[in-house]
Structure prediction request, 466 residues.
Amino acid sequence: MHSQTIAFDADLARRYDRPGPRYTSYPTAPQFSAEFGEVQLREAVQASNEEPIPRRLSLYVHVPFCFSPCFYCGCNRIITRDLGRSEGYLARLYREVALIAPAFDRDREVIQLHFGGGTPNFLNPTQLADTVDVLRRQFHFADRRDSDISIEIDPRFCDPAWMPALAASGFNRASLGVQDFDPKVQAAVNRLQTVEETRAVVDAARSAGFRSVNIDLIYGLPGQNLEGFGKTLDIVTEIRPDRLAVYSYAHMPHLFKAQKQIDEALLLDGDAKLALLQLAVEKLTAAGYVYIGMDHFALPDDDLAQAQQRGGLHRNFMGYTTHAESDLIGLGVSAIRHIGNTFSQNPRDLPSWEIAIDTGKLPVFRGMRMSEDDTLRADLIQSLMCQGQIPVAALERRYGIHFEDYFASALEQLQPLQEDGLVRFGQGNIEATSQGRLLLRNIAMCFDQYLTPTAADTKPRFSRAI
Prediction:
């Protein structure tokens, strides 16, 4: 494993500060098409069952409801304080489980279950326990010691007394949204949250035996400054979560209606925003956190850091995970599946998802089957995002290609990044430097043929090496 060190270079960060995919998948969701539907999904599941060694399974459950809108949010969510809405949603979710679970061979183990949202703790502990029970009855779960059951939590609406009940249901990882503790910033984004209520949930999770706690922060929010964000970072490192995600705020009010509520006069310019990122990198690394990649940090003894050290880190729609090589089954409105060499997504609006379930159909509104080229590039980008390097020699052996010929166009685009010291060419690999590790998506974008169609013009055919 190469060096984990990272170096923040303000000039490079400024020059390469441009929008790009987060590469929780490759190809990314905009490439999905309505031509992929229920029939294609069932074919993909059957093909995955027939693999010589079928992959294990990861489950994702989307809970769309939130009690109040956070103005920065770009997630698929429904704002309501009507707790009764969860009953109808869960009834249909259980029907979706009953529709898809029998398609998978019963001996395929579930090693990961994640509840995302929205606000998953819109559901109470009994409802969450019932959902886990339904999934356990329909799928074959791995031993509790070997499986992860995780949940995203909004501490403002979570009674710390819930945590033992969640632990009893099998939950062992929690991720808490914080974003910023500065009251002025919280008011600007409509998310008032105290340090005390956040710490109480973290402490309760630890007392209940949760394996890890993650905290999410965002830089670039309206009204942020170095002093306020510095205090937030100091509080968070004192709470000492096992993992931290520090996301960049993307202001896209044309796509996300809630962001229209933000006072644009309070937004930071590029340099001020990058200064916050630099502060986060410096404070977190000084506090002993290891940079995992793409906004994520972890303590050295955390499973993520350990998995990265041994080359077993994986990235999917749930972010970084230790469970490589599993098929992902998304359940609920807008959820995404990754079965074999296919992706598919449920409808993003609640009525369309409900209609599909009520008519007994698997709710697929778009998807895609990956080509051989997609599979190769996905493998390359996965390695870059997780290990910070491209294993050139290994990819040549695995896919029967000559790397320099196959990726001639990508390597041409990579040239300026090499000249800027973001990557170096080693013996049998291309490696992100300590400066380049903070700009992994820029490196990956050179190999994304959907961003650079010309890269596919002279693609040679290849046969996958056995």
